[in-house]
Amino acid sequence: MARRVKVLPAPAKTEGFVEVTKGIHTFVGGGGRTNFTLVLTDDKPVVIDNDIRARKRFLAGARRITRKSPGLLLNTHHNFDHTSDNGYYHAKGAVSFGCEVVREEMLREYNAGTWVKQMLGRGPKVDHLVGKLGVEPPMVTFDDLLTVRYGGRIFQIIYIGHCHTRGDSVVWMPEERVLFSGDLLNHRTHPVARLGNFENWLQALPLLKKFPARCIVPGHGPIPPRGTGIVDDVKGYLTRLRSRTAAALRREGAPVKASARVRMDEYAKWFRPQLVPQNALKMARELRQKRR
After folding, report:
1. Is the sign of the CA dihedral 181, 99, 190, 253 positive or negative?
2. What is the CA radius of gyration of the chain?
3. What is d(CA 8, CA 270) in angstroms, rounded to the nearest whole number?
4. Least enclosed by CB within 10 Å: which of 27, 29, 126, 254?
């Protein structure tokens, strides 16, 4: 008799603003879509990440919280669904910050003609933006760590390394003990790893546990329970993916054939379960390369 797999919970389907702590409001994309945050300060608010496709919904909710336009914009990494509306905030007078690799990667994708096209078919539609939407990289960049003091708040932007993308950073608010992980951490959401490095990713997760975070705001999925348990959840997912892919690779030899055998059934209800074969193939190729 086949062993029954305990299926883990699905992501929340609700969409809208959640006040994670006083004055810090995260717009949670329904299901597992991208999350953005509005931080109130003694000056203008600060926005962390953005997506042109979610502008109307984000701004509608933000206006119920404050009538002030954002003064600062922080980018955790370069992906379209976290930076594509930088230009809107620049036009409103906001100054943006991100690591230098974010700038490089945005320009690389734009020059390669993939900036908008990579989002085709993923919804919401971007067809009307092809050939019309430029890139607006962060104005202020850094290599390892940047501390920004603004409006009575402290924001530390810390470069973690090549994990989900080449330019993954976190935003740490030490006084509030809130960590914004970007896509280094997703809650009940399968990761996108086409530009990633799984080995680095697994090595980076213990670093995130060292932040004494009361709350972690992930790049995708609902706000998790307080504490750093989400780090263990993501580590568990990636560790199982690596173990099962390695076993399949030993049996099949070829990464394409091995990835087809990998199952992650306990995560079937998580957002984007269709990514399992792609993630397994990425993992298989990394494992094969490591053996050489």
Report:
1. negative
2. 19
3. 8
4. 254
| Alpha carbon 121 to chain centroid, angstroms | 19
Residue type, 291: R
Q: Which conformational region is residue 161 in: left (phi greater than 0), alpha (psi within -120 to 50 degrees), or beta?
A: left
Which 3-state string (H, E, C) describes the chain? CCCCCCCCCCCCCCCEEEEEECCEEEEECCCCCECEEEECCCCCCEEECECHHHHHHHHHHHHCCCCCCCCEEECCCCCHHHHCCHHHHHHCCCEEEEEHHHHHHHHHHHHCCCCCHHHCCCCCCCHHHCCCCCCCCCCEEECCEEEEEECCEEEEEEEEECCCCCCEEEEEECCCCEEEEEEEEECCECCCCCCCCHHHHHHHHHHHHCCCCCEEEEEECCCCCCCCHHHHHHHHHHHHHHHHHHHHHHHHCCHHHHHHHCCCHHHCCCECHHHHHHHHHHHHHHHHHHHC
pTM of the entire predicted model: 0.96
Residues in the chain: 292
Longest CA–CA span in the chain (Å) reads 63
Categorize the per-residue pLDDT at 1 as very low, low, confident or very high, splitting at 50, 70 and 90.
Answer: very low
- Residue 273 tokens, joined: 């379960």
